[in-house]
TrEMBL record:
<dbReference type="InterPro" id="IPR017896">
    <property type="entry name" value="4Fe4S_Fe-S-bd"/>
</dbReference>
<keyword id="KW-0874">Quinone</keyword>
<dbReference type="GO" id="GO:0051539">
    <property type="term" value="F:4 iron, 4 sulfur cluster binding"/>
</dbReference>
<keyword id="KW-1003">Cell membrane</keyword>
<keyword id="KW-0677">Repeat</keyword>
<feature type="region of interest" description="Disordered">
    <location>
        <begin position="213"/>
        <end position="240"/>
    </location>
</feature>
<comment type="function">
    <text>NDH-1 shuttles electrons from NADH, via FMN and iron-sulfur (Fe-S) centers, to quinones in the respiratory chain. The immediate electron acceptor for the enzyme in this species is believed to be ubiquinone. Couples the redox reaction to proton translocation (for every two electrons transferred, four hydrogen ions are translocated across the cytoplasmic membrane), and thus conserves the redox energy in a proton gradient.</text>
</comment>
<dbReference type="GO" id="GO:0005886">
    <property type="term" value="C:plasma membrane"/>
</dbReference>
<dbReference type="GO" id="GO:0050136">
    <property type="term" value="F:NADH dehydrogenase (quinone) (non-electrogenic) activity"/>
</dbReference>
<dbReference type="Pfam" id="PF00037">
    <property type="entry name" value="Fer4"/>
</dbReference>
<feature type="domain" description="4Fe-4S ferredoxin-type">
    <location>
        <begin position="70"/>
        <end position="99"/>
    </location>
</feature>
<feature type="binding site">
    <location>
        <position position="89"/>
    </location>
    <ligand>
        <name>[4Fe-4S] cluster 2</name>
    </ligand>
</feature>
<dbReference type="InterPro" id="IPR017900">
    <property type="entry name" value="4Fe4S_Fe_S_CS"/>
</dbReference>
<dbReference type="GO" id="GO:0005506">
    <property type="term" value="F:iron ion binding"/>
</dbReference>
<keyword id="KW-0472">Membrane</keyword>
<feature type="compositionally biased region" description="Gly residues">
    <location>
        <begin position="228"/>
        <end position="240"/>
    </location>
</feature>
<keyword id="KW-1278">Translocase</keyword>
Amino acid sequence: MTTESEQQSEQQPQTGPASSDPQREPRASRDFPGMGLVKGLATTFKTMTKHAHTVQYPDQPPELPPRTRGVIALLEENCTVCMLCARECPDWCIYIDSHKETAPAPPGGGRERTRNVLDRFAIDFSLCMYCGICIEVCPFDALEWSPEFEYAEFDIKELLHEKDRLREWFWTVPAPVALDPGAPDPKEMAQAQKVADKRLTAQKAAEIVALADGGAAASGQPERSGPGRSGPAGGAEGDG
Ligand code: SF4
Ligand code: SF4
């Protein structure tokens, strides 16, 4: 009668790795001494003629894709302090301070308006995990990726970039990739074009009115004081 441990010890040799058996080694590597060296040299000579995938950084800067996630840049003028980026950041490494200012009512009428003024915008790159969520959620394109990556510091506290430094990164953001030929304009451009067309039409209308008024004054006819208003009193003045 055999115990359970004896049964296990009998089974172990059958389940052991087959490669540990010297009889099962590949015949070629046993038969020819120095075969491994020959194989290694063959690999060396083969790769010597190929293009190297490494670069001699920092003497040779790497060619990075244009949308590389190097550092986050801020365009302060576009930021409305909506706080979306700070709320969505999974690491809570965006710090924003602001205050409200009251803008006076416009001269033509209306009411006073309040607006947010950005006091502080900082990103702690020692906590940031470069997920890009803040850039995705910003509704005003105030945040962008820059491919710059050379901002390592000896002091970890220096990795807290305030808004002036984040602004400097913005000048290194590459231009957007051109649209495919035949692609429709982005909706922002269509909207801007609509506004520009409206302004041009209003400007042309104003020029036509000014020309008409100038022609009327030259011919001694009364000037129009408003749309559809050229009263007899004005005509009397012009005749006089
Ligand atoms: S990239 Fe991600 S972790 Fe870094 S600041 Fe933006 S949201 Fe936060
Ligand atoms: S989401 Fe954009 S606009 Fe809003 S606070 Fe962040 S950077 Fe500013």
